């Protein structure tokens, strides 16, 4: 139920004091100048007090001496204030929401609306280097918890009026600002409409991070594989928007969501487009191989050691048997013990302060592994396999995607323990079928590897390998079909649009 702002100032003051009861950080001040009462409301430490009290209010007080008897609101908005960022609120709820968002509300006598002045000045973290997506080459800046700062970091890279921003609020109580950024004419209109519709499908008390929004808007919630790509690097977000993707920025979150996404996107790092193509091709192939190792190696070892030792050369089989001499546990239990121990170390390293967490991961792994081997709890080969698996998982650029591989790894370990190599193969097939059935906003998850049209097959040039930049003439499948061209040679520039 919305309450309209009354033309009687006393009624508005009474209601505001009732709403803001026991809110000591909300400043409410009544002033009178040349017989005209005004009431100012703002939240302390969320506004620039020097700007509000030293400039805006001072200008209003000075201008009241020359104020006409009619159209007082319009006079203040258009002539008395030195800022153009003003608006009006006709309901008390809109005015209160503006105040809680960091703006200043001014109520006047005999005026059934409030003047809202933009005065936001939140305490926020400055732009720093990315932590989870370390840049070897390229820009070092990263997103912050300020939505406005994040939109600026993208817009400074795309100086085009066709870069559009749509803003909405999610959360009944938190009223979290969410911005959708896309390139008009390149992004598919149905994708923009789809994400806007999904943001309206649910009601929740509050959203405090983009991860919560991701879970509430994805359709295949049961899948361990993310249907959004998250990034903290503005250059990656800007390049994705230029490809026809959509960036979703959540206030108070330093991670920006990109949609749609495919499996191929998670193996691409921003640095890939700043290095020479031959090096990038090698690194891309290495990432795919590492992902396969991180997912399959422990389960494959269990299957071979327990069910199919004849697959190994005799000398290697004897070496494995000698290493396991005196170990009381079967191979699956060995592997699970070491994998769980490493997961504990990984989680503890994340929760501890930075330097201490890094030291724990390295020293703890060495000490536990060596102690387990010396005590004949596990064999040395299991320690090597678990270490290789962990090392391979760290090569995947996206942490959320790497976590999905960690879950699949345990799924395959269980299948390998019961069915051997056949179980591992069946598990891999089930994962492949699941990936083939996944879609992210209508785009198949395995694109471009499941493309059937020749035009879409050109996405292979930026898939497992990355061709030279001048060969990447077309945008990926995310873009509109009539806007796929993004690069033309010098001879073709006269038709470039």
From TrEMBL:
Keywords of the record: Membrane, Transmembrane, Transmembrane helix
Taxonomy, superkingdom: Bacteria
Listed GO biological process terms: spore germination
InterPro entries (UniProt xref): Spore_Ger (IPR004995), UPF0353/GerABKA_families (IPR050768)
Cellular-component GO terms for this entry: membrane
Pfam families from the UniProt entry: GerA
TM segment ranges: 285-307, 352-371, 377-398, 410-436
Family that this chain belongs to: Belongs to the GerABKA family.
Protein name, as recorded: Spore germination protein
């Amino acid at each position: 139920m919305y309450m309209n702002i009354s033309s009687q100032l006393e009624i508005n003051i009474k209601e505001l004091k009732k709403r803001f009861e026991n809110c000591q950080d909300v400043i409410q001040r009544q002033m009178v100048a040349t017989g005209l009462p005004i009431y100012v409301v703002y939240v302390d430490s969320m506004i620039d007090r020097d700007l509000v009290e030293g400039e805006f209010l001072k200008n209003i007080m000075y201008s009241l001496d020359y104020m006409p008897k009619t159209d007082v609101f319009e006079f203040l908005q258009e002539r008395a204030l030195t800022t153009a960022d003003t608006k009006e609120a006709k309901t008390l709820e809109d005015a209160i929401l503006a105040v809680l968002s960091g703006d200043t509300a001014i109520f006047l006598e005999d005026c059934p609306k409030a003047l809202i002045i933009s005065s936001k000045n939140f305490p926020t973290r400055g732009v720093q280097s990315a932590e989870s997506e370390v840049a070897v080459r390229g820009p070092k800046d990263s997103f912050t918890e300020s939505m406005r700062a994040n939109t600026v970091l993208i817009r400074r890279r795309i100086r085009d009026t066709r870069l559009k921003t749509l803003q909405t609020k999610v959360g009944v109580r938190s009223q979290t600002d969410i911005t959708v950024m896309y390139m008009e004419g390149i992004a598919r209109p149905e994708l923009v409409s789809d994400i806007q519709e999904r943001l309206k499908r649910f009601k929740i008390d509050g959203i405090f991070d983009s991860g919560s929004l991701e879970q509430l808007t994805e359709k295949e919630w049961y899948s361990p594989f993310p249907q959004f790509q998250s990034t903290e690097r503005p250059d990656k977000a800007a390049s994705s928007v230029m490809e026809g993707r959509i960036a979703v920025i959540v206030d108070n979150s330093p991670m920006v969501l990109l949609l749609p996404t495919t499996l191929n996107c998670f193996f691409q790092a921003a640095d890939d487009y700043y290095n020479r193509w031959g090096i990038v091709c090698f690194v891309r192939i290495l990432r795919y191989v590492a992902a396969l190792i991180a997912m399959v190696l422990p389960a494959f070892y269990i299957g071979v050691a327990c069910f199919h030792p004849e697959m190994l050369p005799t000398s290697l089989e004897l070496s494995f048997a000698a290493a396991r001499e005196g170990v009381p546990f079967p191979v699956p239990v060995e592997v699970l013990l070491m994998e769980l121990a490493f997961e504990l170390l990984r989680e503890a390293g994340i929760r501890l302060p930075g330097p201490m967490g890094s030291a724990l991961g390295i020293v703890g792994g060495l000490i536990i592994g060596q102690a387990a081997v010396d005590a004949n709890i596990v064999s040395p080969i299991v320690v090597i396999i678990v270490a290789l698996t962990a090392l391979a998982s760290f090569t995947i650029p996206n942490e959320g995607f790497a976590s999905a591989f960690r879950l699949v790894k345990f799924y395959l370990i269980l299948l390998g323990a019961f069915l051997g190599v056949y179980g591992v193969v069946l598990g891999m097939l089930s994962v492949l079928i699941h990936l083939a059935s996944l879609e992210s906003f209508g785009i198949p998850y395995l694109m471009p590897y499941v493309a059937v049209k020749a035009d879409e097959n050109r996405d292979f040039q930026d898939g497992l390998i990355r061709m030279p930049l001048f060969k990447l003439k077309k945008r990926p499948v995310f873009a509109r079909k009539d806007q796929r061209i993004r690069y033309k040679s010098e001879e073709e520039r006269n038709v470039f649009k």
